[in-house]
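Section 3.1: Structural characterization of target chains.
Under the original work plan, the team committed to producing a structural model for every single-chain target entering the pipeline before any wet-lab resources were allocated. The record below documents one such target. The sequence was received from the expression subgroup and is listed exactly as submitted; it comprises 139 residues.
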Amino acid sequence: MNIETLIKKYQAGERDFPGVNLIAACLSGVNLSGANLRAASLSEADLSAAYLVGTNLREASLTRANLKNANLNCAKLGGANLFGANLQGAILNGADLKMADLIDANLSYCDLEGANLYGAYMSGAVLIGAIMPDGSIHD
């Protein structure tokens, strides 16, 4: 599925896109709140400033994805589901990860760069079992 088709379907009310392949896609500023992107391939995708509130990214591949200033927060809906997601080398500068579920997520190194969490908002985020940029497992 290409980006245009996904956005048209989303705008028409569809929210179920498990396993979609959007490797290196430009989705900067897109609104995909509440979408099911479970096990999606989003490696190297540009999701900067994307609105991903309540989005299911469980087990998604986000290796080296740009999530700078993305909004993955929502206390009312619960944060984004990043359970078991691969965020190796992802850019998360300024991302809003409040209430996000990062259980068993991999935020470690990829090609000598760990996930960049500088300035990320993580209040209430769940990090149990997450592999952090320094290689430690958060318990």
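Residues 1-139 form one domain.
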